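User: Hey, quick favor. My workstation is busy. Could you predict this chain's structure for me?
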Amino acid sequence: MKKSIFIAFVVSLGGFLFGFDAGIISGVMSYVNPEYNLDALQSGWVVSSPSFAAMFAMLLAGRLSDFFGRKKLLLYVAISYVLSALLSAYSISYEMLYMARMLGGLAFGAALILAPTYIAEISTGKNRGKLVSIQQLNIVLGFFAAFLSNYYFNAFNESGSSFLNDANVWRWMLGVEIIPAILYFILLFFVPKSPRWLFLNNREEEAKQVMYSLHDEQLATEEISAIKASLHQNRNQNKVKLSDLFKPALRFIIIVGLVLAVLQQITGINAIYFYATSIFKQTGIGTGAAFKSGILLSLTTVVFTVLAIFLIDRVGRRPLLLVGIAGISISLLVCAYGFNNATYQLTESEIGSFEGLDGQKLMPLATKDYTSDVTFKSDVKQAIGNQEYQKFEGAILEKATDMNANLVLFGILGFIACFAFSLGPVMWVMLSELYPNAYRGLAIGSLGFVNSFISWGVQQVFPWELDNLGSTMTFLIFGVIALIGFFILLKILPETKGKSLEELEKELVQS
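Assistant: No problem, here it is.
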């Protein structure tokens, strides 16, 4: 069991790097936006471009791993992470930055597919839930490390450090990712090839050696027997095509997987993670406090992901998902309520207190009261220009905003907590369980493509939503979608706890 845990942790370090990248960019954009004078769509593209690239990596990764092996592809993933971190840190333009991040997107798209596939193939029905959930734990540890890193880099920069300044601090934020990327590459040499992949490729002796190294003799023998029986039954299905996923026998499990893949992202989780610093700025707590709140957000994620790992093989997948999605909906609606009650006003004395900003341009706004964040931000941008607004956004909103910031913080933390013990880890666990051996790589890759497409769309549109729909409507939309998702899952979601992959195949694949 210890060896299985170690292997699962190493293989899913790609998830750590995904979480690190997602957390880092939320702080980086505070500096990149004014550096390159980005508008809302350009800002969204810098953030979302890795997810756009990840869509295609997810679509191909499972299929390629069926041919070349899970481990070999993971080594290429680690190398891509290293290159992405270096090129991002040395970017000399907006275009170079998003292209470097797209290389990282190819890496984490492949990693998010390969890790749960691999881990499910070395696990047993008794421990598969917690082992596959280690990937989500690594993701949230990556978030935590990134928010902590961002906080200290930002603090050193604001302290007047001669080493860091607004022009280079974001480069250090991005470049530090090379350290875990190199560690990931090295540790991958200590994990074996997937035994089920070896069986699929007629390398039976190698597969048996791996199985006996992972489990005691009796359990390994039982697993080998079940795998061989399943492969014999599906001996003509090794070379599956995308069209095979639409067979009537697979219809139910494809629908379940599709609902999970869409729901995990369309409720806005990556909007929260990737734009955490910006969201907290909208509450008026200031830039420094926004970076601090990111640490609290990521710590909450870690705690509740650990809770999920403890519960997933005890309570089961279905209860965690249903409770979690209900909590997600409630939390998002609380955020919408908090933002809806906000007002915005700048006094003459506050306008004169912005160091480095020509306050005279804002004086015509001093007598105005705003109930809409959209109108307020639009007027400020017209007065001082987009680039100056991006630079001083945190300070301006801190002075102008009157709202219950703690209520919004409570809602966001509630959303993060509920996601962390439900849709976050459980979706990947269930995707790794639902599909027969011969279809698993292709099915998870295809659903991963859908998952990443939704994620990209949410990230790309989110800055535009904040600018044009406002915080209230944005969170209201997410909350209503989550509520609809709860009732869909209540009707169709099966329970997969405690069953071998071969048992689930017999139960869920309709003959």
